[in-house]
């Protein structure tokens, strides 16, 4: 398994501002994923981030709103841009297992409230 | 494409009773199936996984799940519920791939409440 650290763990932001969430993993991994969990709902994949290439976004999510960086094999950031109250959610980072078993390990998440 | 249906958004069982959380999947290719648990204010923790070996999979904390292809089901069970089992449980599916990790598709979750 992998140990994943997400920062910040929670934040309260004003509408119109942007927040960058960091995800650090303790081993080199090929694939990292960013999910959104809206209040009382399940997880929805935002994008897949591979090192050295552009992130792949799911339907309904765009790079201008959720830019992602993946500078190396242990780190990624997700930015939530021009926030509105509808962006209030938990944002979770996950990494694929190095064994290639299609297992994903999750960070503790970032709880974002937008006022 | 894959999808997951979890029957019952809320399940309550008495302490010591059987826990049964239902999950049905749809997949156009042989699937990998997972159960994750989310405790309050925490991330997701992997409970168990089915990746094509034994159809009865044992996980952590006494949980197990059985893959039934004919029923397209992967229900989660635990013989005797404990108060610490109170949490949100998510079933998830991904496609198998020779290239490793594929994206997960999650069910809507089941909130398990344990009655003392």
Topology:
The complex is a heterodimer of chains A (115) and B (116).
Chain A: E1 4-7, E2 10-13, E3 19-25, E4 31-37, E5 43-50, E6 56-57, E7 68-72, E8 75-80, E9 89-96, E10 104-106, E11 110-114
Parallel strand pairs in A: 2-11
Antiparallel strand pairs in A: 1-3, 3-8, 4-5, 4-9, 5-6, 7-8, 9-10, 9-11
Chain B: E1 2-7, E2 10-14, E3 19-27, E4 31-38, E5 44-50, E6 56-58, E7 64-68, E8 73-78, E9 87-95, E10 105-106, E11 110-115
Concise account of the structure shown:
Chain A is an all-beta fold.
Q: Your description of this structure?
A:
The complex is a heterodimer of chains A (115) and B (116). In chain A, the strands form two sheets. In chain A, strands 2, 4, 5, 6, 9, 10 and 11 form a seven-stranded mixed β-sheet that branches. In chain A, strands 1-3-8-7 form a four-stranded antiparallel β-sheet, with no helix packed on it. Chain A has strands at 4-7, 10-13, 19-25, 31-37, 43-50, 56-57, 68-72, 75-80, 89-96, 104-106, 110-114. Chain A is built from no helices and eleven strands. With 116 residues, chain B is mainly β. In chain B, 0% of the residues lie in helices and 57% in strands. Chain B has no helices and eleven strands. In chain B, the strands form two sheets. In chain B, strands 2, 4, 5, 9, 10 and 11 form a six-stranded mixed β-sheet that branches. A five-stranded antiparallel β-sheet of chain B has the order 1-3-8-7-6, with no helix packed on it. In chain B, strand 7 (64-68) and strand 8 form a beta hairpin. Chain A binds chain B through residues 1, 4, 6, 30-31, 33, 41-45, 48, 58, 92, 94, 96-97, 100-109, 111, and chain B through 32, 34, 36, 41-46, 49, 51, 90, 94, 96-97, 100-109.
């Amino acid at each position: 398994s992998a140990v994943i650290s997400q920062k910040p763990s929670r934040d309260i932001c004003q509408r119109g501002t942007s927040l960058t969430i960091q995800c650090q993993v303790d081993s080199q991994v090929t694939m990292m994923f960013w999910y959104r969990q809206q209040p009382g709902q399940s997880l929805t994949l935002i994008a897949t981030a591979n090192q050295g290439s552009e992130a792949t976004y799911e339907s309904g999510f765009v790079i201008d709103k959720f830019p992602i960086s993946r500078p190396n094999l242990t780190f990624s950031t997700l930015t939530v841009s021009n926030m509105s109250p509808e962006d209030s959610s938990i944002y979770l980072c996950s990494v694929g297992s190095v064994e290639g078993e299609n297992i994903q390990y999750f960070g503790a998440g970032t709880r974002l409230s937008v006022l | 494409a894959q999808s997951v249906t979890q029957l019952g958004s809320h399940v309550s069982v008495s302490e010591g009773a059987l826990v049964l959380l239902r999950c049905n999947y749809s997949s156009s290719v042989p699937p990998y199936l997972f159960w994750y648990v989310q405790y309050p204010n925490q991330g997701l923790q992997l409970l168990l996984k089915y990746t094509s070996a034994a159809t009865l999979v044992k996980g952590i904390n006494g949980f197990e799940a059985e893959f039934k292809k004919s029923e397209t089901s992967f229900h989660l069970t635990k013989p005797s519920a404990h108060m610490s089992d109170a949490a949100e449980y998510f079933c998830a599916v991904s496609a198998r791939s020779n290239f490793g990790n594929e994206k997960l598709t999650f069910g809507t979750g089941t909130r398990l409440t344990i009655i003392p």
